[in-house]
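Input:
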Amino acid sequence: MAGLEFVGVRKTYPNGVQAIHGIDMAVADGEFVVIVGPSGCGKSTLLRMVAGLETVTEGEIRIGDNRVNELEPADRNIAMVFQNYALYPHMSVFDNMAYGLRNRRTPRDEIARRVAEAAGTLQLEGLLDRRPGQLSGGQRQRVAMGRAIVREPEAFLFDEPLSNLDAKLRVQMRLEIKRLQRALGTTSLYVTHDQVEAMTLADRLIVMNAGVAEQIGTPLEIYDAPATLFVAGFIGSPAMNFLPGTVAEDGSGANLDGSERTLPVAPPASAGRGRITVGIRPEHLEPVSREEAVLEVVVELVEALGADSLVHGQLADGGEGMAVTVRVDGARQVAAGEVLSLAVAPNHVHFFDPDSGNRLA
Amino acid sequence: MEKRVVFSKLGLPILLVAPQIIITLVFFIWPASQALYQSVLLEDAFGLKSEFVWLDNFIALFSDPHYLNSFARTVVFSAATAGLSLGVALFLAAMADRVLKGATAYRTLIVWPYAVAPAVAGVLWFFMFNPSIGILAYLLKGIGYDWNHYLDGTDAMILVVLAASWKQVSYNFLFFLAGLQAIPRSLVEAAAIDGARPFKRFWTIVFPLLSPTAFFLLVVNIVYAFFDTFGIVHATTSGGPAQSTTILVYKVFSDGFIGLDLGGSAAQSVILMAVVITLTVFQFRYIERKVAY
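Output:
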C-alpha cells in the first residue's frame, strides 16, 4: 500500500477547456479522501487522471514514490469502482472478480482463494455463478467492490459508486464501504457530489469548484470554518444562510442590509469597514424570547422532518431577498406568518468578503 | 405493454393486412410454389409437353458431380466472402470507433460501396484485375505473379470473392460500428485497469459483447453470398473458367435459362430455398434465446 500525491496537477482538454487548475495535495497511506463538488467541477477528471484514463497536462501524480503520469492504467496497481459498476455482462460474478487477477497471471488456486475471501467479506458466496444481469443493484455494487478488493491494489478509486442506488441502500453501502476501507487500510479516493456521503466517509475532504480545490481539510474543519462562500454553501444541509451587510461604524458588529438592528458579533479586523457577507448555518439559529433576539424572521413555509423542522422565511426588517432558513426542534410548533425571534452563538457566525468569496479571519 | 386493438367488423383489418398479404402471395408464395411444382416435372426438349417425374430431378442433381462440385464451390465462396467481409469490416469499425475528427466523413466514405450495384462492382474489379489492362494484375505481375482469371480457376474465385466482399464490407461496417458504440466505455476502461492490454481487451470484453451482432451478420453474409452475388459472378467470370466460379445461384441460371433444363433448375432453386429457410430459422432461434445483458 502507498500514499498518493498531486503536485501542481493541471488538465487542459485539446479543445482548450481547462478542467483542473492546479491541485497540490498529499494523501497519506491508508487515508480515505473524498473529492466533492457539483457536476462539472472536474472531480471525476481528477480521479480518472489518477486511474490513467485521462492524460495529465501538467504536473505530477505519484503513487507511493513513483511518478505514474506516463504509466498505463494496468501498471498503476490501482482499482476503480465505476458509477455504473462496469461489470462484464458476459462473465459470471466469479469471472468478473477473477479477470484482473488472470490478466496478471496469478496462480489458479491463489485466484480461487482471494475471490472466495472477497465473496465472504461482501456476502456474495451464493452468487458466484450468476451473471451481473441476474443481480440486484446492491449486489452489483458489491461485485464491483469485490473486483477491486481481490486485486489488493495500492489504492481504491471510487467514481460516484452509490449514485445508482436507492436512498436506503445508499446509506447501507456507505457504511459498508467505510467499514471495508477501515478493515483493509487501503488508500482511497472517492468522488461524489453528495455532501452527506462526503462528510460521513472522508478522513479528509477536497471541495472542488470549477477545477479548483476550494478547500482541503477534515469534514469538521470544513464545516466549522469554510474557506470560501462556495464551500460554505456547498457543505451542510440545508445550506448556510448568506446575509449581505456592512461592518458597523465602530467595528463591533455587522449591519445587515435593510435592517436597523446590528448583529452584535464583531467581524474580524481584516474586514475593514467595507461590505461583508455574513454566513449563519440554519442549525445555529436558536429561537429565543424577543429581548434576547438578534434576528427576527417572518415565517413563510415550514418543512416538518419529524426530528426537526426547517423553517423558511424572510428577515423581518430586512430588505428584499434576505431569505433565512432555520432548523428548529421538531416538537416546536411554528406557523406561517409567525415572527420568529432568533439568537446565534458568536463563534458560529462566518464572515466572507463578498467580492473574492474568501473567508475573513 | 402490448396494445391490442379490437375490431368490431372484419372489413377494416382485412383491408389493412391486404397489401402485405398480396405482396407475399404474388412475389413469394406464387413463384415459390411454381418452383416447387416445376421441380417435379420433366420438360421435353422442345418445351411442348412436360411429364411428372416425382423426385427424379433431385436424384439426378445429387448424383451429378457438377452439381456437387458447385455446392462445394459455393461453400468455399460463401465462407471466404463472409469471412473476408466480416473481418475487414470489424477491423475498420474497431478503428473508426476511436476516430474523433472527421468521423462522419470517414463513415460516409466506407458506406459508399454499398450503393454500388452488384454488376457494377463486378465490372470494377474485373477491370482492375484484367490480365491485359488491369492495374492490379499489372502490379501482381511486377511482383512475379502471373494473374489470369480467364484461365486460372483459383484466380477467378479470388476475384469474385474480392468483389463480393468489397460490396458487403460497408453493410457489416455499419452494424459493427453501431455495436461497438453501444458498448459502455467504462467496461473497456475497467478492463484496462484490470490489466488487460488492448488486444486482450478486444477479445475478452469487446468481441463477446459484439457476438450477437457478429452472429446476425454472419447469417446475413452467408445468405448474401449464396443469393445476391449472381450479378457479380455474371459480370466478372460468368461462372468460368471451367465452372470454377459457378456457384449454386449461378448454376440455377445457367442450367435453367441457358441449358433450358427447367425441371432441374427448379429443383436447384428449391434446394436453395431450403437452405435460406434453415439459416433464417436458425438465426431467429439463436437471437430469441440469446441472453439479454
